[in-house]
Design brief:
Blueprint (H helix, E strand, L loop, with lengths): L7 E3 L8 E4 L6 E2 L3 H12 L2 H4 L46 E4 L3 E13 L2 E10 L4 E6 L9 E2 L3 H11 L10 H14 L2 H11 L10 H22 L3 H13 L2
Antiparallel strand pairs: 1-2, 2-3, 4-5, 4-8, 5-6, 6-7
Length: about 250
Amino acid sequence: MPTKSSSAKKLSPVDGVDQEIQLDGPDVVTAAEAPEAESASLEAVSSPAAANDSLPPPLPRPSPSFGAGSRAPGGVPGRMMPPPRPMAKAENFVEGDHVVYPTHGVGKVERIATEEIAGHKLELIHITFEENRMTLRVPVAKARTAGLRKLATRKLFDEALAVLKGRARIKRTMWSRRAQEYEAKINSGDPLSIAEVVRDLHRNSGQPDQSFSERQIYEAAMDRLAAELAALERIDKTAAATKLVEFLKTV
């Protein structure tokens, strides 16, 4: 398990999912994100400089924020990183609201309560995701930077449907790079960006079939759109997904 600083407090499991409040971070760290932190911790322990203080300090590593096609110092291709998470507009959330958390999709505000974490009193938004049987706790003060938002308006969702009618804009790049871009769009939580993924990967009859990985990303994007449409129109998710499929047949 990763080692956390004193600004983090381990909470008891909620609905079978370990959670942790990051007091000075943008959002909540869940168990699913822990392996990356653990990997970084192991890398630091195994560093030659850590094993022998007499060795000169290692050269600073290249910044991980190189964009697509850029190269790090020394001619090493820069690793493609997802775009920064867009900051949501300031909103007030109340119990019972359907909300969208960028990396988890549509959830429901179960309650808003003040709790003491590591000696600090925080006002936390408890968000439940019934499909994943998970509860997420987000500090009210960090909700905006975490990208938490209310459901899209009818006007905005209609704009997303209009995106589906557009022509696919597929870049002439390797699939692995395109897949990263599509996943970043899905995890942005923006319905317009998610609609772009559906538009680019949708196949009508007579067109070549999708590859396995294309199908996976396409279905993930469709799932996000269907979940938000279902909450917006107060219908079940299956009916919303069917509605989207029928709409795509008219494109």
